[in-house]
Design a protein that fits this description.
65% of the residues lie in helices and 0% in strands. It is mainly α.
């Protein structure tokens, strides 16, 4: 679960999108379709915010 990953490491990894319940609703593949080439950049920005 992404929430647990954020709590334990203050980071979101692309692998986290393959965990329940995200993968049952959309997963990384659908998120990549929505955000395109910016997927990695968005995750990096989220991680910077979480680390602050």
């Amino acid at each position: 679960m992404i929430k647990n990953s954020v709590i334990s490491s203050f980071r979101i990894e692309q692998d986290d999108f393959d965990l329940n319940p995200v993968n049952t609703k959309s997963g990384l593949g659908e998120w990549r379709q929505l955000s395109g080439e910016e997927t990695t950049e968005i995750i990096n920005e989220l991680n910077e915010f979480l680390a602050a």
